[in-house]
Design brief:
The radius of gyration is 15 Å and the shape is elongated. The model has no long low-confidence stretch (mean pLDDT 94). It has two helices and three strands. The chain is an alpha+beta fold.
């Protein structure tokens, strides 16, 4: 039996958000997570618009990366990156 794990990982964490029986269900939850991370990044950029150039460039890069709608191609390393993993489990 296959299950699909939705979560996100970053430099110091790996969080599992949900487990699904179908890729379609996992994709829906993955997209919610991606949009949540994207909104957080946009909000952080707006709140800290007076921070240095390095911070603004990093946040813009994160926003661009989280704009990817394909879980197989998204790459936001080393920052929070949502994922779908397919695992085989025994019944």
């Amino acid at each position: 039996m296959k299950v699909f794990i939705v979560g996100d990982h970053g430099p110091e964490h790996n969080s599992i958000r949900s487990i699904h029986r179908t890729r379609k269900g996992a994709l829906k939850e993955w997209n919610k997570l991606r949009v949540e991370l994207l909104r957080d990044a946009i909000s952080m950029l707006k709140r800290n618009k007076d921070d240095g150039r390095f911070f603004r460039e990093m946040m813009k890069r994160i926003i661009k990366n989280l704009g990817c709608k394909d879980p197989d191609k998204i790459d936001n390393y080393p920052h929070e990156t949502p994922y779908i993993h397919e695992w085989d489990v025994k019944e």
